[in-house]
Amino acid sequence: MNLTRTSKKYLRYIVPSLLLGPERTKEILTTSPNESIIRKDAEATQITVYDYNEKEINEHELTSIKESFSFKVNNHVTWINVDGIKKNDVEIICDYYDIHPLLTEDILSLHQRPKMDEVENVLFCLLNMLYFNEKKKIVEQEQVSVALGKDFVITFQEDPERDVFNPIREKLKQSHSKVRQRGADYLCYAMLDLIVDNYFHVLEKVGERIEEVEEEIIHERTKRSLAHINQLRKELIVLKRNIAPVRDLIAGIIRSESDLLQDRTTKYFKDVHDHIIQAYDLSENYRDIILSMQDLYINNINLRMNEVMKVMAIVTCLLAPATVIGGIFGMNFDIIPTAHNAWGFYTAVGLMLLIPVGMLFIFKQRGWF
Amino acid sequence: MNLTRTSKKYLRYIVPSLLLGPERTKEILTTSPNESIIRKDAEATQITVYDYNEKEINEHELTSIKESFSFKVNNHVTWINVDGIKKNDVEIICDYYDIHPLLTEDILSLHQRPKMDEVENVLFCLLNMLYFNEKKKIVEQEQVSVALGKDFVITFQEDPERDVFNPIREKLKQSHSKVRQRGADYLCYAMLDLIVDNYFHVLEKVGERIEEVEEEIIHERTKRSLAHINQLRKELIVLKRNIAPVRDLIAGIIRSESDLLQDRTTKYFKDVHDHIIQAYDLSENYRDIILSMQDLYINNINLRMNEVMKVMAIVTCLLAPATVIGGIFGMNFDIIPTAHNAWGFYTAVGLMLLIPVGMLFIFKQRGWF
Amino acid sequence: MNLTRTSKKYLRYIVPSLLLGPERTKEILTTSPNESIIRKDAEATQITVYDYNEKEINEHELTSIKESFSFKVNNHVTWINVDGIKKNDVEIICDYYDIHPLLTEDILSLHQRPKMDEVENVLFCLLNMLYFNEKKKIVEQEQVSVALGKDFVITFQEDPERDVFNPIREKLKQSHSKVRQRGADYLCYAMLDLIVDNYFHVLEKVGERIEEVEEEIIHERTKRSLAHINQLRKELIVLKRNIAPVRDLIAGIIRSESDLLQDRTTKYFKDVHDHIIQAYDLSENYRDIILSMQDLYINNINLRMNEVMKVMAIVTCLLAPATVIGGIFGMNFDIIPTAHNAWGFYTAVGLMLLIPVGMLFIFKQRGWF
Amino acid sequence: MNLTRTSKKYLRYIVPSLLLGPERTKEILTTSPNESIIRKDAEATQITVYDYNEKEINEHELTSIKESFSFKVNNHVTWINVDGIKKNDVEIICDYYDIHPLLTEDILSLHQRPKMDEVENVLFCLLNMLYFNEKKKIVEQEQVSVALGKDFVITFQEDPERDVFNPIREKLKQSHSKVRQRGADYLCYAMLDLIVDNYFHVLEKVGERIEEVEEEIIHERTKRSLAHINQLRKELIVLKRNIAPVRDLIAGIIRSESDLLQDRTTKYFKDVHDHIIQAYDLSENYRDIILSMQDLYINNINLRMNEVMKVMAIVTCLLAPATVIGGIFGMNFDIIPTAHNAWGFYTAVGLMLLIPVGMLFIFKQRGWF
Amino acid sequence: MNLTRTSKKYLRYIVPSLLLGPERTKEILTTSPNESIIRKDAEATQITVYDYNEKEINEHELTSIKESFSFKVNNHVTWINVDGIKKNDVEIICDYYDIHPLLTEDILSLHQRPKMDEVENVLFCLLNMLYFNEKKKIVEQEQVSVALGKDFVITFQEDPERDVFNPIREKLKQSHSKVRQRGADYLCYAMLDLIVDNYFHVLEKVGERIEEVEEEIIHERTKRSLAHINQLRKELIVLKRNIAPVRDLIAGIIRSESDLLQDRTTKYFKDVHDHIIQAYDLSENYRDIILSMQDLYINNINLRMNEVMKVMAIVTCLLAPATVIGGIFGMNFDIIPTAHNAWGFYTAVGLMLLIPVGMLFIFKQRGWF
After folding, report:
1. Is the pLDDT of residue B2 over 60?
2. By CA distance, what is C215's nearest residue in D?
3. Is the Cβ of E333 closer than 8 Å to some Cβ of chain B?
4. Does A308 touch chain B (CB under 8 A)?
5. CA-to-CA distance for C14 and D325, rounded, in angstroms?
6. Residue B197 at interface with chain C, using a CB cutoff of 8 Å
């Protein structure tokens, strides 16, 4: 049998689009936290430095990674942002700023689990910025590494096209903003807060998608609902995989009692912790709602099936006696009772009508309608 | 095919009412603990101050938020209740009463997870008052913030229409009531106790709704039971989302060992803690019962389906031989055995009756009835 | 359609008895740990006092609660048992024996979660005695409060008809019994041990009910098995709700290191703790067995359904060709091949028999029997 | 309807044997850790004493329990093994060897949960030896109590027929064996190790049974697979009930820091702990595999059902038009078109064949084969 | 009935290959951590010694186990690798290098749970190297034991054919590599890191297999998807069984504070710990995806079944009236109305067409298409 032709019809039930079947599963399942798989170098990197204190702020666009060396020792807070990961550049700057080789490896790795570490006076966070791709209806992630040292923050982002930290840039330019008035630890907090806040935007988008699918199911707008539910379950796996470890990450920062964190900043991290817990709770709720929706869908399909089957059963039952009666009087015997009577035909047809009426009465009593 | 017409019939299975489908999901899924989404200012706010000690009590209706400043330092316990959230007002009063800007943000936020915090000599609780909307059969929530300071309690409520704390007002007016004889911490306890007690009212209402739906299922009063079960599952998500974090909130207060709490008040908070744990247990029990009810419903539908299908199968089987016999003797061959016999017709009809009787006997032996 | 008539037939599947449907759910779901719902005073109360030491024992039947005051200070261990809760009486005795008002409230409350508290030199336990109502096949509960003080135990029971502590009375009368030779803490242990031991009796009864239902399912004695399983799941909710918190209660007593408990009594409480953990494990096992039984039932029903449907499918298939052949030769054409042959009829009938035999052969090969 | 006859046929699906239905459930559910249910005294007891040190070993067969008294104080390690529980004997020996009455009660009890206790210089373990009954395919248990005191171990077994500790006896007879060279604590370890090792034998047997049932399911050797799966789930409950508490038991011994245990023995108990954890993990894996097997079975049954129903649907559909055509030309109208044509019959029959072929073509395109 | 013939057809649904049915279950379920089951000695063993410090490295191929004795005391780091387990050899070397007999037993055992132990100045790890057998599509495991002592590491592998540690050998040969510059603890870390990194390779392969099966399900390439899903569930059990305990193993090393581990090595073990947690999370995600895939498969099959059944129901219903009408006018009564009219036949056939059209209209309105 030609299977490709066969499946054409049924594909509509379970293939949401060419991009969202096993290809998405592949993306989700890919893993390589080990060194051996080397990240392809970004084609271009963009390095910007913000050097600021309460009074002034200087923005520098660097052309070479080595230009960043001059900012290590000064009285300003320095934020070096590297957009686009090139192995060489990362190793040079990490080496200069005393970031442990293991952390450098983490920055260079792909598909890392969000983690937090404090090694030799550097507080290191690695987590994923999440975006919701409106077109593909999937959750995309970009790995962000934040290294907080004495009076400096170095951040690494994968995608030079989009910059996660733009809102912080805006705030830095305003001299009265808190981020300007406080130290590097507050800058680090502001970054984590921004990323976690963004999780809620993504959750909201996924939430909207859940509503859409529920709408679809209730109004039966499409036969692909099963595929859509399946896809949503995958996206939730992505969400939870990114959100759950960030709870430990932030809790780890709060517990670390690092000298890099001022006491007055701790309560800000606690606030982020509250948010990330809420994000996790939400993703749990989403899961409950999706499972409940799947139950609703399947049960609804079954109820309809039942209805159709019941009608079929009843029609078949009601018409069966008529067929038999027709057969009886259609037999070619010489002697058929009432065959020569004028009212014979009408009696037979009458029986054909009366018996179903009687059956209907019985069925109603038994409650089959 | 016209889907909107198609769905008309089936909508009755899964659409409980226009208000309770995906719209309810949307409400549940909406989240915005971040600053960026700004709460719309209430149209009107109502600010009342109760200034009391064991001997006297004064009630003031304020027209401007700044009138509340005068109550900060006096020997009385002061309760300032703000009904309706206006960003400006909240910021002014919080600033004056030394409530940390992060807490002020929490008060102004929407859809916050219940939380407790102790920042600079203010014990802050944010939780949701729950109501059961009898008409829509849904659980509604109103965010309540309670800030306990030295000799004052400031509360913020969203809805100026309904006042959560009316029963406390009543008690305050009675000079012999405990709440009058004790300090601000007892007032704070009384508020939390009131809110938690109200959870039981809501649980009871949801419980009544569960009974209604179980009644529906057993007596098959409606075809929308599936929708009702689905909706109850959503309401339980709302309940658990509000109740679960309050456990931590109250446990946090007990553990805080804050100077604001007198030793003799602790056991009252422990009592509230016992209650909130019971509320949580109950919501777990409700979930078990709803899932068990869903099983009952689906299995019951299937049992009925089985019954109908079995009867159909049997009727079809019993009548099938008759149809064949009718067909055999209805064939237009010249020579049909017994066709010219007087008893031919009766033999054929007799067979039509005897064969089903034999089949019935076999079916009974096999236990298909 | 008249639904009440309709449901008559199906009620037998899911209504075990008028007492065990939603009414039971209602009982389970009812909750009111708050003050506002006031317990109706018992019509009669029975107050007995046992005043004993190693050498002598005196039993007093009190007519007024105030007569109990005289037992507070003496060198004997005093057990005051109040059967039937009257608000006034409870408040008077609790006040006199320095039981904290919050505990008094607990005693007066309904549907409390089992709890343990140590307030101002009184160790307080509230838990439920369970009974299995053989007639209704449900688990009934009676709230028992035990207050252990210096040299006294005060107990409160709801139902004056049945006395939980009769076996202890018997032992008290024997001068050589341990309960006589030890202090009030041992008396308290004996009470908890009695209650926990009784849980096993109830578990055993529920276990017997589970066996009955399993027996029903396997021998298909009734069509109400689904209802019985559903009911058992409800009873297990009641059991777990009562047993689970008692674990914490007893662990709380062991951890409390109260002066009221002698060191040598601790190991007795540890023994009770072992028992309650076993009771909890058992209720978990029961749940597993019930869920496994439900799977068995549903799958069994489906297997039977499959069997019936398969026979129907085969009979229909086997007879269908005969009907068609009958139809072919029943057509009123002038020229029908073989119609005038002597063997025409027999050929046709032969075909009617041969084709099904051939089909049967194919079906057997495909393994459909 | 005669139900006993009815069920004959279906019993084969769900009754594995007369011994393994509700009777097994009854055995599993029976519980009585309380005193009230008294164990029936064994008909015969066998008391053996091994008195040994590194150099010599003496074996004594006692006729009366009191003969064991003489071994209490000597420089040898003494192992008293009591096979068969008689209340009187147990109380006498426990009393003499200072075993606390609560522990004596535990030894005498039935269906105890495995537990460990240290009371007044006696380390007490109660656990169950498991056997797999090859004939009944069930897990059997025998309660074993081990009391470790200063230089003595007293063990109590239920069944005098089979002796759990035979392998230890063998080792004791070899003067170079570790058990001879070390103290009573090592003897106690050897006993627990033996029992835990035996759990793996039982697990292996249950594992073989799981394979058998999987084999059955895949090759459809029997219709009782559902019953077998159900039974395996019950046996797993028995296994987990016995294994899970032993983890705590052994962990309790390691944590106890009892003077009875030498430091160098601790690592042996840690080894047993590793084993018992592995046994628990395995029982979890077994559960997963059984549930996965049940899914496979049910889904497989449904796939077959689908196949049969699809063929039936198609045959019915294909033959239906032929029946109608036969009916049309079988009508007794005077004027039937083509009725008098020579090719009329062949046209009709041709239509009967062509229409199904056309339908087949459509069905294939829709992918229904 | 001949069952072997019967099952031929259905085997294709659930037998993936002769190697992957119950045989695989058997492999998974086999357990024997106890001494009694003795591992068969390897036919050949290969013993290699690497003796190195920062400056030089010597590789020795030993012919007898006793040659390894000479490396115990020197200033070099010594790695003795034993490929192939012979009881005698293992006991000799372990005895000489002061590895505790209990650990020697572990090395000799089969199917051990991964574990870590520190006994008398030897840090011992036992875990499984995992491979994915591309041909059989199963996860294979090889037990690896690593004993870290003062300046030496002894490793034991089961399979002399394949050597797990080849990459480490490569690195050892490079004098500038970290493993050369650091001590035995770093060598031990490198080994664990290698094994854990390999888990990701296996996870990736299993992930690819999941994609393949999802592809199969969506494009319905085979009827064995159920078997493939079932098999994947088994492989995941193997994965989790191996990965889960390694978390504790590595955490145990980090917590051990052994003198054998230098401070600067700890962060490397923390890095491995991060990886193993990620591996565990991934295996959890895999489980979710497989279960979601199974849901998709079953629901998809049911949707198709529904579609087929609906068409059958409709065709049957539409044709049933035609059959009855044919029967009515086929009856052999003398007087049949319209029988002698010219338009009688056409009226009847017209009715046969009109009634289904009317039914179709009703069905469409009810939404059954």
Report:
1. no
2. D22
3. no
4. no
5. 47
6. yes
